[in-house]
Design brief:
The complex is a heterodimer of chains A (217) and B (217). Chain A has 217 residues and is an all-alpha fold. In chain A, helix 5 packs across helix 6. Chain B has two domains: 51 residues, no CATH class; 121 residues, Immunoglobulin-like, CATH 2.60.40. Classes of the chains: A mainly alpha (217), B alpha+beta (217).
């Protein structure tokens, strides 16, 4: 059984736009439009060992992954290594992705974060860049407005609540999450007692959690 | 801390932020997670804090990696793929028979833009008539309504697999089909009418006989 058109498609959905595709076989149809796949479907194609999909996946997320690695480690060389390993891990474990838990971007960035934390345990000591925080919020200049809109949508209520957190809590939360700094390191950076640093992280994170809980079903 | 004493909620509370941030070391990390697994209150707490910590990673600045980043990453994946055990054993089932089957794309892929994120997702496990889980089905609302079906464990034998969604009124509507000879396992997607996002169930038939189903929840 074939779908009835003269292109030999073997799945009904492929035949939905045969004229605009104009190729024979579902495989080629997919690969010609892989750059238009949603993040989730793209990751599915990566899981199936599609090389073109892997290339698009890397191209789509490399700035995010490398950006987080640089932010956390402050070392371009190490960040490059971590970003490379991130994509390898993503490729190896694409089948474990659960869309109910997180977006593909978030899932990928958690891999980067965990790698960075492990790396920093071994070679801590990169001095903290005092300009880092000012780069984090608001969105840095040069970000594509469309991309910024996507990010705002993904952050949703969390982004709004982050923006209104007291500045000391916001700094502590961002240093802990994006810069991978421990409470002890944040105490040193901010010149505050350890207990105060812990309280700021705790209060900030729990306030954000409460905000997210309000919008979750 | 006495490592023999079970973790209580108060102790968990004191370490929850470090755990959510990925900064907690073993063996305490394992003990905290073991407590959370049995305590609904602490499970909910760490679930929420972890989601916040993960999602905040999206705020990290995006930075262009070195020019050859993509080619090096692809070469790395290629070298891995050429190895004898390039994926964890538990993952082989997903790619095994699908290497040549690939993904069948729907017309929906023609309208998705890079970076599009599915905002509303309903996921259900696909269970065979024998009672085993064989994949997953996802109803995704944005950017266009579509159904994504992942078949991990294929139904044996050839045949046309027809996919149907059940409306709230109990009626079934066919949304597409594929030929098992071409696509045994993999990710299959199709655009659907917006009102089918409220579908209560999905079923797959093979030449008229039901072989698997999923209930949305």
């Amino acid at each position: 059984m074939r779908c009835g058109c003269d292109l030999g498609h073997t799945a009904s959905n492929v035949c939905a736009a045969p004229q605009s595709v104009g190729v024979v076989g579902s495989y080629i149809v997919v690969m010609r439009h892989v750059d238009r796949l949603s993040d989730e479907a793209l990751l599915g194609a990566v899981a199936l060992d599609e090389r073109d999909a892997a290339a698009v996946f890397i191209r789509r997320f490399q700035r995010r992954v490398y950006g987080l690695a640089v932010t956390m480690t402050g070392d371009a060389g190490l960040a490059d290594d971590l970003a490379q390993v991130t994509f390898e891990r993503a490729w190896r474990h694409a089948g474990t992705y659960d869309a109910r838990r997180a977006s593909v971007a978030t899932w990928l960035l958690t891999i980067t974060r965990n790698l960075a934390i492990d790396a920093m345990r071994v070679r801590r000591a990169t001095p903290f860049d005092p300009d880092l925080l000012s780069q984090l919020l608001p969105a840095s200049a040069g970000v594509d407005p469309q991309q910024a809109a996507v990010e705002a949508d993904q952050l949703g209520r969390l982004g709004a609540e982050l923006a209104v957190l007291p500045i000391d809590q916001r700094r502590a939360v961002l240093l802990a999450t994006l810069a991978g700094r421990t409470a002890s390191e944040i105490a040193d950076i901010e010149g505050i007692p350890l207990g105060t640093a812990k309280t700021r992280i705790r209060t900030g994170l729990r306030r954000l959690r409460a905000a997210m809980a309000e919008v979750s079903p | 801390m006495n490592v023999d004493r079970p973790i209580d909620c108060e102790t968990f509370d004191a370490h929850a932020e470090e755990l959510a941030l990925g900064q907690q070391n073993e063996p305490l990390r394992g003990r905290l997670l073991a407590h959370a697994a049995l305590c609904p209150r602490c499970h909910s707490l760490i679930d929420g804090l972890g989601m916040v910590a993960d999602r905040l990673l999206l705020v990290a600045p995006q930075i262009e990696p070195p020019a050859d980043f993509e080619s090096r990453a692809l070469a790395r994946l290629g070298a891995q793929a050429a190895g004898p055990t390039h994926r964890p054993v538990g993952f082989r089932w997903l790619v095994g028979a699908a290497a040549v089957g690939a993904v069948a794309a729907a017309s929906l892929f023609l309208v998705l833009a890079p970076g599009d994120q599915p905002a509303t997702i309903t996921t259900a496990a696909i269970v065979s008539t024998a009672g085993s889980e064989v994949g997953s089905a996802q109803l995704i609302a944005e950017p266009v309504p579509h159904l994504v079906v992942t078949i991990a464990a294929p139904h044996p034998g050839p045949g046309i697999r027809t996919c149907e969604l059940r409306r709230a009124d109990g009626t079934w509507e066919e949304v597409g089909w594929w030929d098992a000879a071409d696509i045994a396992t993999g990710v299959w997607a199709v655009g659907i009418d917006p009102d089918l996002l409220d579908a209560t169930a999905m079923r797959i038939t093979s030449d008229g006989d039901a072989i698997a189903s999923a209930t949305f929840g």
